[in-house]
Amino acid sequence: MNYSKQREIIYQALADNVVHPSAEYIYDVLKQANSNISLATVYRNLNKMAHNGKIKKIQGLEDKAHFDHNTFEHYHFICKKCGRIFDIPCDIAPEIIKKTQESTGFKIESHDIVFSGICRECSENER
Amino acid sequence: MNYSKQREIIYQALADNVVHPSAEYIYDVLKQANSNISLATVYRNLNKMAHNGKIKKIQGLEDKAHFDHNTFEHYHFICKKCGRIFDIPCDIAPEIIKKTQESTGFKIESHDIVFSGICRECSENER
DNA sequence: ATTAAATATGATAACAATTATCAGTTTATA
DNA sequence: TATAAACTGATAATTGTTATCATATTTAAT
Known about the structure:
2 copies of one chain form a homodimer.
Chain A: H1 5-16, H2 23-32, H3 39-51, E1 56-58, E2 66-68, E3 74-79, E4 85-89, H4 93-104, E5 107-118, H5 120-125
Helix pairs in contact in A: 1-2, 1-3, 2-3
Chain A binds a DNA duplex (30 and 30 nucleotides) through α1 and α3.
């Protein structure tokens, strides 16, 4: 894999961003920053980086994929009301994985946990 | 929700099936069984049944959704080689949920865990 | 049984997210 | 600096899924 300027700015846009953006969102951000990047390039590089573990791809309840530059082990919560995605720190999973691997004989290389429900803010706004 | 013949045969096709089929797969099965069912009807009813808890929708690693008539709590493993989806029984999750709910204040309504890697069979075939 | 309202259907058009294509450009390497 | 490999922008194509709509089926009330 060669160096590429576009991959660099895509990663930066992802890392600078508080939320967990979609490919389209990153594309819009970069467009507004006067880059003449192509949407295909955004998809290509996000997938490439997700593939080799530089970033994480979040594919869960929704129709489109989201990305996360945080690669330390954590999970996600999607709010059904506002659609926001929150990080969920978690340390119980290693047990599950070990247990599962032993009982099934499967080689587990990755795993994802996606919770969904109503976030606190939306829950409070409800009444 | 009214009774419907089509929903009945869709559920049967799902329940009779060993694998975790996609909507398209169920459609093909029913087509070959001489039903003149429509693909839209398959999608409509799978989603409806998933919505009211009669079946489970698996949305995870792949590009398309899969369905499962097993509604007891369990998770899934997707083999990166053969693409098959396996059930993973699991009883640790309730702890995670309680913990997460307490620490975040989020109301968790559902969750999904998708493991991926290489299944035993593919692992053995590798050498 | 007959009717009327609600719900479901098949066929297909529309849609949104993503990927493939391809000619031209950039990067790494010899 | 020449060459091959990798990357890019523009956009066409693909894929999974949903919307539309005229017709048919189901349900409940007469």
